[in-house]
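Lab manual, section 2.4: Encoding a predicted structure.

Procedure: take the sequence of the chain (276 residues), apply the prediction step described in section 2.3, and record the output as structure tokens. A sample record is shown.
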Amino acid sequence: MFNPVLSLELLSLKKVAVLMHSDPDIRDLEKGFVIEEKWAAVVKKKVSTLDLPPIIKKRIPPLLKDIRNVVDRWEMDHITILGRCSWENDIECVWNDDLTINGLKTAKIFIQNENHSLVKRFLMACVYWLEEETKDLWKKLPENVKANCSSIHVSYPKYRWEIAVKDWVELSECGVADWRQHSFSHPLTWYCHDSIIIQGNLLRQLSPQDQLSVFKGMMKGSIEMHTKIFCLSIMNAEQLKEVMKNEPLPKSYIISRHDKTHFLASFRKRISSYFA
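Recorded output:
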């Protein structure tokens, strides 16, 4: 039975954990290789200063570890674009209630932050399919950087985002007013099979049927589990039903993920009917 008091308590705990994670002492420890014992000692000291009941305090370090793991995963997802920038500089993350990072909002904050490299901000704008930001940053890029971007030759890309950047460079050079009028080198659904691009604005611009096609593809094979979880969390009821017809999820998976990620909280009643 759903308990709103427990849910409110958990939501409050998550917010406390997110605030604690932004503490400079904790953030500094997480740049690069993390010494677990040192991290645990600092966290314990910080938690001890909180004016909270002991039983509540005990629940905060595990949540902080979950947050750290999520940040690490975000950084690894973006390392091919940002390099060590994501480790060496503080990236301001926007958090969802289920302790996952809101990729699109986080990307927008990164792009708006002038302390970050202009080139990296441009790359992020391209990959997250943000038209106005891409056009604005393209105008600000030095001519030699524009020339380097224009001369990029991708014969067999390991990452689809590289092709996306190349296409956005061509679009920017041509001065196309609306990206929807541009002839991209691949179908738009193809780009969304990239674990970063799918978090951006492009997926939201696709028709429900094209979105469903993307979701079906992303639920197969060796796609990273956190990407599959992201897809599940943004599907509507009909899309979820169609995906599970072709790629049924084990009931044990649904149960085991519930307490840790909480991404199923808003879907619990909907999903349970499919397993009845």
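Check your result against the sample. The chain has 18 helices and no strands.
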